[in-house]
Amino acid sequence: MATTVHSVSTTSTTLIDGKAPPRQAAAASAQCVTLPSLTAPPLQQQNRVWKATGYCRKLARNVAAMATGEATPEAVSPDVQELIKPLQEAWDKVEDKYAVSSLAVAGGVFLWGSTGMISAIDRLPLVPGVLELVGIGYTGWFAYKNLVFKPDREALFEKIKSTYKDIIGSS
To answer: Which of 40, 42, 80, 111 has its Cα between 20 and 30 A from that of 104?
Structure first.
């Protein structure tokens, strides 16, 4: 959608006639861009026309926008800067940005597909209830097998730590 530079002027006769105001080209200015004015639908009562006229005049005054260029870092709050800075540093350290971007897109597609599959399964009768019971049963079995007794719990934590070290790498 292309935007053009126009001077907008609305009068009360514009709304009474129900026609759009004529557009006159303003002097070419790269800083001020206005949108075309909105036309009011035809109204049956005269008092409504006058109320709409005042409202549309307010709209016509508030449509102009001025481009200021790029956002300065001061415009962003310090909290947001604290969140963005580590992400930018981590992104700069990545050597294969194409592979990371591809994995991120593939992950998004996978999540989208899996939510569609889960919502399809959720619509089937009896299946959500059965899956919920299976989940509760497995959780109870896992807790009894790995969390109730101290030696089993310590073995589980040791296994989690070793898996974490295998993934992250020993430094």
So the answer is: 80
